Amino acid sequence: MKKMVSITTAAAISALSVAGCFPTVYAEETADYQPETANVLFAESIPDSIPLLDDESADYIFHDSFEGGENGWGGRASETVASSTKAAYQGSGSLYVSGRSDSWNGPIKSLGSEFAAGETYSFSCNVMYETGSADDLFHFTMQYDAGGETHYDKIASATIPKGEWGQLANKEFKIPDGAENISIYAETDTSKVSFYIDEVIAAKAGTEIKGAVPRTLLLGDVNFDGQIDALDVAMARDGLINEFSDKLTKSAADVDKSTEFEINDLVLIQEFALGKTTEFPDNAPELPPEPVSTFEYNSAVSYHAAPNDYLGNCSQKGTVHKETYNSINGNKTLYVYTPYNYDPEKKYNIFYIMHGGGENENTVFGTDVELDNILDHMIMNGDLEPMIVVTPTFNGGNCSAQNFYQEFRANVVPFVEGKYSTYAESTDAAGIEASRMHRAYGGFSMGGVSTWAVMQNCLDMVGYFMPLSGDHWDGNSAQEKAQSIGNAINKAGLTPRDYFIFAATGSDDIAYPNISPQVEAMKPMSQFVYTSDFSQGNFYFLVAPGLTHWWGYVRHYVYDALPYFFHENQ
């Protein structure tokens, strides 16, 4: 429990001793407040969340706080479940689940002999996620065997805002009669977002377990108690001196919406608390006009091979770096192309391109493809802005083209963009999501399959996609494949201006009979506007007449498509 200090209302609202800048009139106007009748409490150190029941009075069967490890929790499938100190509801630790391939993937724990079928218990779990849609529906679920079948009963469900801790709790949950092999787990309703859990508790029936209540933004309500009073003035005063610990609190204190919390905001909160005003002024800065791309798009790009000299060495040659990193699939190697005169103080767009089946991370920059030569010439001649290009691999461990997105999320992007200069201000989930429109992913053949899988599962990380001679493998029919992409977009809450697809293949390519029907099924869908003019639409399919399934042709698709990326990233 945080230390509590008693002060008077007058003291809480009186002159702020910061460089003598708080108006003395407020001290005079609060003189009528009498200390003996107007005592209030404020936290000397404001708690980040509602405290749990005191340990002495709590009748807990177990209490998993994740301060020292996983506490017996594991994963239900191929997802990664590990203790984390990056976020916590209470204390400094939590459990983080990532790399989820389906909504039912989540952290799971087997219940021991303390729990009996037919008995009732109180359960609580706190959940938080940082990427994806503005809110997400979570379930706290019990899995058990009975009558020769496995059953899944919801203990509690709640819709939780992104970035806020929320509680899933039920103080009267009965374990069904005859239940065996009983476990509890957390899951989402439909999304595959990564999330944290903390302070998972089981107690005797009827126990009221306090948990996280997502905060709702109300200007001036700095302590999120639903009203604006002396407590908010005191907390705002403290925030002005010591700064706030989180963005939502700062937003609540920035009552004039100027984007900065200043002494003027504190004055306004105090005036409101005193009843001198009933509303706050709106000083929100006028947004600049939406930038208009100056790139000269062609609305129906046709195939053009790169000039012959682009295939040879360039006088302004970039550098290909070999990098080794540790991944969820073991030690792996990838290559990073940096452009001529790469400057680590500048920011660069980044393109990840995946090889095909039977190939590896050496293929794209190897002697059979030499995409780096084409990149060098394109950048030197102004066809392409300088950028970073990465060639990873789906080979190794339990990795495949279809599930590489898990390693891409967990290891590849954080490793590469933690070392090379991109638009990612940080390599945590928030930093990667904020820079997604400066990140592209593409690939040939099985690399094209990988591209559709990355789109389905990593829309929060990537804004541009280049599937080359490869179709989506989630679904049997073209309509099912198209719909699985559409469903992923809907779950991510994105608009058609938030993602762009430039697909390509040859008319005689073995992949054409598979990818073409999928494209036709996608064209009429509301998520797509078909044109290569990405200032007007977001989806295009280039078909090269007579060309077959060969990197010698596919490298020219990259030459045609890549200049169309990264112009809509504002």
Features:
single chain, alpha+beta, 6-stranded antiparallel β-sheet, 21% helix, globular, disordered N terminus
Tell me the Rg in angstroms: 28 Å
The main pleated sheet reads as:
8 strands, mixed
The helical percent reads 10-25%
Strand order of the biggest β-sheet: 14-15-17-16-18-19-20-21
Uncertain residue segments: 1-57
- In total, the number of strands is 21
The class by helix and strand makeup works out as alpha+beta
Strand-residue proportion: 25-35%
The number of helical segments is 12
Shape: globular
Separation, N- and C-terminal Cα atoms: 45 Å
| Average pLDDT | 88
Task: Give me the secondary-structure topology.
Layout: E1 4-8, H1 9-13, H2 25-29, E2 39-43, E3 60-64, E4 74-75, E5 80-84, E6 94-98, E7 107-110, E8 120-128, E9 135-146, E10 149-161, E11 166-174, E12 180-188, E13 195-204, H3 230-242, H4 247-253, H5 263-273, E14 319-327, E15 330-338, E16 349-354, H6 371-380, E17 387-391, H7 404-419, H8 429-434, E18 439-444, H9 446-457, E19 464-468, H10 478-492, E20 500-506, H11 512-522, E21 539-544, H12 551-561
Describe this structure in words.
The chain has helices at residues 9-13, 25-29, 230-242, 247-253, 263-273, 371-380, 404-419, 429-434, 446-457, 478-492, 512-522, 551-561, and strands at 4-8, 39-43, 60-64, 74-75, 80-84, 94-98, 107-110, 120-128, 135-146, 149-161, 166-174, 180-188, 195-204, 319-327, 330-338, 349-354, 387-391, 439-444, 464-468, 500-506, 539-544. It contains 12 helices and 21 strands. Helix 9 (446-457) links the parallel strand 18 (439-444) and strand 19. Helix 3 (230-242) runs antiparallel to helix 5 (263-273) and helix 9 (446-457) packs parallel to helix 10 (478-492). Strands 14-15-17-16-18-19-20-21 form an 8-stranded mixed beta sheet, with helices on both faces. Strands 3, 5, 6, 8, 11 and 13 form a 6-stranded antiparallel beta sheet that branches. It has a 5-stranded antiparallel beta sheet with strand order 4-7-12-9-10, with no helix packed on it. By secondary structure, the chain is an alpha+beta fold. It is globular.
